[in-house]
Amino acid sequence: MSGTDRAAVVAGLGVWVPPGVVTNDALAQQLDTSDEWIRSRTGIGRRHIIAPGESSGDLAVEAGRRALKSAGTDHADVVVVATSTPDRPCPATAPEVASRLGLTGVGAFDVGAVCTGFVYALGVSAGLIESGFASTALVIGADTFSTILNPSDRATRAVFGDGAGAVVLRGGAPSEHGALKGLHLGSDGTRSRLIEVAAGGSRQRSTGLPPDEADTYFTMEGRAVFAEAVRHMTASVQETADRLGWATADIDKVVLHQANARILAAIAERIGVGSERFPSNIDRVGNTVAASIPLVLADANSSGELQAGQKVVLGGFGGGLSWGSVGLVWPDISTC
């Protein structure tokens, strides 16, 4: 982030998950799996799934509305939606979300960085505020991966859930609680095939051939992704801490993308801090992709696990490959 005297400050937090719940036992009635198999490999016990006809945009609108209420405002100069499951391939989801929130006429666009999407969207939005282009920004992470999973793939169906989370950023001073600092972003496109939906884009469509059905669904190479996630999220969190002059022992909470409970445990071990500093809700919502970080922030803030004045690093890893992190001192805000 820039060295200016203007910063993007977290001023509101809102989340939403669809009411439909699919437990591990329910999945076991459809697939060759069990509650024990899923929990031992992922730490997940259930996930929320949208109803037929619902979309990422619907979830984004509700999370955005709640974030605006939390911030005590009905306005934002720009709306940024991080999603890899947009309502349609074209146009972007953000303009319609903005309109439904009564924000017609403001800047609105999508960011696609899969599970790192929320961190990337925070970075872009913070830059707009720091530059003076915007005084407030509504940043939303929303995904409905249930719509792109192979119905017969127990590995992916066990992991992913649907949800949305949002924050309101406002212009303020770098010294304020809630000011975003130490942004770190990275990518490695040479490993893009590890996490992908192969069909549906220009590369496949330009062939003029119908796609293989398997290529229309989300796939990932689990073991390789595990290793890359641990390596890059660990390094990114440490890079952000270094930029802020924080020793590892100074960090009160490390709030990471909720990909897998074993990944979180491995990162905690590498960083050298106890797992109690890593808030987690993956057991209740699964991997919600771009919604993951704000959802766990909301849970920790509401429960009191996250306290105003604590030093916090947010971090994510996802397709691209992409990764990123950012730090802040947690502000005194309510969750809606």
UniProtKB/TrEMBL annotation:
The active site is at residues 115, 257, 287. Pathway: Lipid metabolism; fatty acid biosynthesis. It catalyses: malonyl-[ACP] + acetyl-CoA + H(+) = 3-oxobutanoyl-[ACP] + CO2 + CoA. InterPro entries: ACP_syn_III_C (IPR013747), ACP_syn_III_N (IPR013751), FabH (IPR004655), Thiolase-like (IPR016039). Residues 243-330 form the Beta-ketoacyl-[acyl-carrier-protein] synthase III C-terminal domain. GO terms for molecular function: 3-oxoacyl-[acyl-carrier-protein] synthase activity; beta-ketoacyl-acyl-carrier-protein synthase III activity. Catalyzes the condensation reaction of fatty acid synthesis by the addition to an acyl acceptor of two carbons from malonyl-ACP. Catalyzes the first condensation reaction which initiates fatty acid synthesis and may therefore play a role in governing the total rate of fatty acid production. Possesses both acetoacetyl-ACP synthase and acetyl transacylase activities. Its substrate specificity determines the biosynthesis of branched-chain and/or straight-chain of fatty acids. This is Beta-ketoacyl-[acyl-carrier-protein] synthase III. Homodimer. It is found in: Cytoplasm. Residues 258-262 are annotated as: ACP-binding. GO terms for biological process: fatty acid biosynthetic process; secondary metabolite biosynthetic process. Its EC number is 2.3.1.180. The last Arg residue of the ACP-binding site is essential for the weak association between ACP/AcpP and FabH. It comes from Nocardiopsis gilva YIM 90087. GO terms for cellular component: cytoplasm. Residues 109-189 form the Beta-ketoacyl-[acyl-carrier-protein] synthase III N-terminal domain. It is an enzyme of class 2 (transferase).
